[in-house]
Specification:
mainly beta, 6 helices, 7-stranded antiparallel sheet
């Protein structure tokens, strides 16, 4: 669907521009590069304190590592992260379980579509899927999380990469009894699992993940230099995938649309997240082709670049830095301070540098 048809409020929206140009108009940093960054940016990231749920000096109650919310079940807080690769082709809609994930990552894959990595830890999902194949970016995403990784299939060399990562692979080949086919859907978009069945496969060496982000505490709202009010934001992630995020002031979450339509789960509920992180990255071709002859892309998520946080109805510009695959991505504001997220669920967009965008 053309970008201009996404919103009936187009006349009040900013014109469609590239991601870099749009953010430049919002007083963002001038460079939007990834895959390396400047020595100064690396030095700043290296001196940042480790992620923490409190910067006040007070003794804070324990929080879940992937949401920053107060622990209400010590058993769940101690279990490992569980990452499930979720299909996002139109044939896979509606998905199941995304709304229960602590973090969801979205990556561009071949053919102009995207795919999700849903990360569970603080809550369970009675059904998750459809489960799909691994991609070359996945090891760099999941390595800092550790825990379990669930997927189904993929190119042999990509599967070899994930098996070398420091995660316990609980894919369809390794744990087939934890998966089932929904015969009301067409294969390969019909493979499902449950978090309970996958966590039951966890080895004794699996442990809770380190925090993925730093969270604002004491009810404070995330803030930063040059923050701007924002009602919604639209991104052309690929030729067949346009993503919209609209601020729901009543529920205080960002609601997702895909190709101009509310992105709902199998129960009909529109997906909503407390934070949306826009991480600008460079995509390149791996040189591989899928069965349809489409180039398989890979995002460079090791390095540094621009990042933008959507939280509490505003956009906060900043930077991301990840010196190697083993290190969790760090987010800072434009002055080099830690960029704090709102406690809750977070959606991370690995957004192409040249993506067309629209703000409103």
């Amino acid at each position: 669907m053309p970008l201009g048809k996404l919103s009936g409020r187009r006349r009040r929206s900013a014109p469609v521009v590239s991601a870099v140009a749009a953010f430049g108009a919002l007083a963002l940093v001038a460079s939007a590069c990834s895959g390396g960054g400047t020595k100064e940016a690396k030095a700043t990231a290296a001196t940042q304190p480790p992620p923490s749920s409190s910067t006040t000096g007070k003794v804070a109650p324990p929080t879940y590592p992937l949401t920053g919310r107060q622990v209400d079940d010590a058993g769940r807080a101690a279990r490992p992260a569980l990452v499930v690769k979720i299909d996002n082709a139109p044939q896979a809609w509606p998905q199941v379980g995304l709304g229960a994930a602590d973090i969801v990552y979205e990556e561009v894959v071949e053919g102009g579509i995207t795919r999700f990595l849903a990360v569970f830890q603080s809550t369970d999902a009675g059904l998750v899927g459809p489960v799909r194949s691994v991609r070359p970016i996945d090891p760099a995403i999941v390595t800092p999380l550790g825990g379990l990784f669930a997927y189904s299939g993929g190119a042999p060399k990509f599967q070899a990469m994930i098996r070398k990562a420091p995660v316990q692979v609980v894919g369809f080949d390794e744990a087939s009894d934890a998966y089932h086919r929904d015969r009301s859907r067409k294969a390969p978009h019909n493979l499902f699992t449950t978090t309970q069945q996958l966590w039951a496969k966890a080895g004794a060496d699996r442990h809770a993940p380190a925090p993925a982000f730093t969270y604002a505490v004491d009810g404070r709202s995330p803030d930063g230099p040059n923050e701007k009010p924002l009602n919604g934001f639209t991104i052309v992630m690929g030729q067949r995938t346009t993503v919209g995020w609209d601020w729901d002031a009543g529920a205080k979450v960002w609601r997702r649309t895909t190709n101009g339509t509310p992105h709902v789960d199998q129960a009909g509920a529109q997906l909503g997240f407390d934070n949306v992180v826009l991480q600008l990255v460079q995509y390149r071709s791996t040189g591989d082709l899928d069965v349809g002859g489409n180039h398989v892309p890979e995002a460079d998520i090791v390095g540094s670049g621009n990042a933008f946080l959507l939280a509490d109805g505003k956009m906060i510009p900043g930077r991301w830095s990840k010196p190697d695959a083993a290190t969790q991505t760090r987010f800072t504001d434009e002055q080099g301070g830690v960029l704090e997220l709102k406690p809750g669920r977070t959606f991370v967009e690995f957004m192409p540098l040249d993506a067309a965008t629209q703000s409103r």
